[in-house]
Amino acid sequence: MLATRPRESLTVRAVAAAAEASTTAVYSLFGGKDGLIGAVRDRAVAGLFQDVSAVQSSADPLADLYALAVAYRRWGRGHSHLYTVLFGGVQSFDPSGEVGASDPIRPLLAAIDRAVTASVLVGEATSIALSIWATLHGLVTLELAGAFDAATAEAAFRSAIHATLRGWTTPAVFGSLRQAELAH
To answer: Which of 2-6, 9-13, 61-65 has the highest average model confidence (pLDDT)?
Structure first.
């Protein structure tokens, strides 16, 4: 319901009816509408965190960042309703505050920090993360909306993520990446 309706139109009565439960059960379990919405959002955040946290670090920071993007996309495609709750614009989302221990952005920031330390990427970690997330989010959102066929979605994902990462590389790394691409 949260993925397809504005928060304001969701009622405890409608949720209880859809779950074939009483409104008392919803209030007992979640404390009301806001608690229920929070629980759904928490479930989505936990699932996304679990999938991106499962990505193993390697000696190649760019490969790690690409693998994180793949995990994010896979989770979004596999959990489209939860993805919509988190990022679909139906619900408000306030990204302010500290990054928590189980925040899905944590593995991305850690990989970016490793890449900056290794002189593979240059820039401020938050700016790099925002550009990667904006590109990734746009791609996944368009894919879930049916804007691409499967082949186009795959090609767009690969090229856009590689281009975004390449845009943050140091001049030496950029040159070697472009030479490798031209050789293929």
So the answer is: 61-65
Distance CA(13)–CA(19), nearest Å, equals 10
Distance CA(131)–CA(70), nearest Å, equals: 16
Count of all residues that appear for the chain in the document: 184
φ/ψ region of 177 (left if φ > 0, alpha if ψ in -120 to 50, else beta) reads alpha
**Domains in the chain, please, with CATH?**
21-89+98-183 (1.10.357.10)
Q: pLDDT tens, 84-111?
A: 877 765 444 444 445 556 678 889 999 9
Which residue from 174, 72, 46, 65 is spatially nearest to 129, judged by alpha carbons? 65
- CB atoms closer than 10 angstroms to residue 64: 21
Quick check: helix, strand or coil at residue 48?
helix
Q: Left, alpha or beta for 72 (phi > 0: left; psi -120 to 50: alpha)? A: alpha
